[in-house]
Design goal:
- The chain is mainly alpha-helical.
- It has one domain.
- The protein is 50% helix and 0% strand.
- The longest helix has 10 residues.
- 27% of the residues are buried.
Length: 70
């Protein structure tokens, strides 16, 4: 479901992530790229939009709510 980003962009995103992960890294190991919490996309999100955001950003529901005001 995630789109593979160019290596340079993945490296940049790893550099700005508190966990040192790109969204692809986080999704691959089922961890939030912001807080490092384990993520299960089948059960941990309130709706399909939040699941899509996880696959784009690697953020768990709690961090999505903090950033987007959920």
């Amino acid at each position: 479901m995630s789109s593979e980003r160019p290596k340079g962009l993945q490296d940049f995103l790893r550099g700005v992530s508190p966990q040192g992960m790109s969204p692809e890294d986080g999704v691959r190991i089922s961890k939030c790229t912001i807080c490092g919490k384990s993520v299960n996309p089948n059960t941990d999100f309130v709706n399909g939009i939040s699941v899509k955001e996880y696959f784009q950003s690697g953020m768990c529901q709690e961090d999505q709510d903090k950033i987007f005001g959920g």
